[in-house]
Amino acid sequence: MTHVAGIEGPIPHRDAFKFSYTLWAALLCIYLEAMSGIALAYELYWRGDMLSLLPALIAFVAWSFLIVFNLVKWRWRRALSLVVAPFIAVALVSMLSYLGLNSDKLRFEYRKSDLLKDVAESATAHGHPVLINWGWGDMGGGFGGASTEIGLVYDETDQIMSPPSTWSAEFRNRLFDQSPREPGRDYNQLGGRIPPNDYTTEPDIRKLGDHFYLVSQTVG
Questions:
Q1: pLDDT tens digit sequence for 181-205
Q2: What is the pLDDT of residues 55-112, one digit of tens each?
Q3: Most buried residue, 23, 25, 124, 193, by most Cβ within 10 Å?
Q4: pTM over 0.85
Q5: Taking the chain, what is the end-to-end CA distance rounded to the nearest angstrom?
Q6: Backbone angles phi, psi at 168, to 5 degrees
Q7: Dihedral sign (CA 65, 66, 70, 73)
Q8: Main-chain dihedrals φ then ψ at residue 112, nearest 5 degrees
Q9: DSSP class of residue 102?
Q10: 3-class secondary structure per residue, 24-71
């Protein structure tokens, strides 16, 4: 607070570091992460892109305006708070994602009981080891561009974590079987594109839980 001669009472000192900017940026990051998961789960495609890009664009315009406005007003602390807010927010949300608080993990936990029922039924019908490949969604592919296909795999042997070149023929055939093992089930049909060829990338394999893995691969 400061005082100016000839003016009664204190005048608020408005140039201060504002942590609230980081909170707003973090909320935007959480929204974008959640929307990414929703778009993937419900196959929203370009509609999902619009629901993510439009708020992000509005936020970017507002962020840029506020930085310039505070610089013009010589509010250097506020301007600096605005500049660093997105970076701090991304770091915080990335840390939460690393700890397992992300859209894929939350979706998996929500569906886990049904997935385990499928595993038990498959073990009863076909024996062990159990290997199931469910559809998880795909991204991109618009206007003839590359798309990323994602499958959720239950591999009781955990062989999927080995290099694809070491997979046995039986494992590969079962993993990419084009015929669903149970009528009406949403099994993935990646088409046996692993190992990669001229049109596909190396698979990205990420563990979600005991014997559960997310497998994603970009198809050009």
A1: 543 444 444 444 455 556 677 778 8
A2: 999 999 999 999 999 999 999 999 999 999 999 999 999 998 888 888 899 999 989 9
A3: 25
A4: no
A5: 60
A6: -75, 160
A7: positive
A8: -60, -40
A9: S
A10: HHHHHHHHHHHHHHHHHHCCCCHHHHHHHHHHHHHHHHHHHHHHHHHH
